[in-house]
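cron nightly-structures :: item 1 of 1
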Amino acid sequence: MKVYVAGKVKKDSSFGTHYWREAFVEELARLSGLALACIDPLKEESIGHSAQEIFEKDCRLINSCDVFVVYLSDDISVGGSQEILIARYFNKPVIGLAPLGGKFNGATREMHGKVITDYKDPFVFTTCDIICNSSEEVAEALKSPLPLSSGLSIIEEAVQ
């Protein structure tokens, strides 16, 4: 199974390296017992130099995957959220790893003068087909039949 992994790119991220994706997919393979191949956009030989080249390459890679996994660390950049929508465009199952207690899942937030406990980010919880709290949960999700993505119809449904 080919897994495209989206998430933080900068080496000064919470992962401490550019190249954390391969180890992450190896951990998922060990936990799930599945044969997984990591599609890492930073490991591709032709990374591209212009914004357009990088975008095109990432679109091609996302289109080639069997499942799209986004690691929603608290320091994720805007690219990860954009890639979620690209994956949905290609009808790929989207698994979001949003660690419990992080800013996207289970945090305490203040909105409109009210304190919300166990906050669930609406853009994460509506655009991901499956939300997991840990690598173990992602591995379990990969072993289960993956949901058919509804693509971008979630947007059309939201405005009706």
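cron nightly-structures :: done
The domain at 2-158 is CATH 3.40.50.450 (Rossmann fold).
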